[in-house]
Prior knowledge:
single chain, 88 residues, two-stranded antiparallel sheet, 7% strand, elongated
Amino acid sequence: MVRIASSPYEDLETGCPMLGHPVPLRYCLEPGSELPCRRIVLCWQERFDIAGLLREVLTPEQLEELEKAPKQKISQLLELVAKVKKGS
């Protein structure tokens, strides 16, 4: 889990598009996995330099893993349809 030293940002809240309600930054940093939420930069970049904070607290390997964008739902669906068509 990602730990940040006492920060003026840790108690700031922003709306979470995945949960549908406000959450504090500390939740986004520790969403139940080893890495912060993949959307953390998108959700926080307008409030403060979240990318800079992440560079301070994550290893280069963790940053690289975090930057790997998950596939969009439409891409996943199109791949599934293609697999089904091949199987028919």
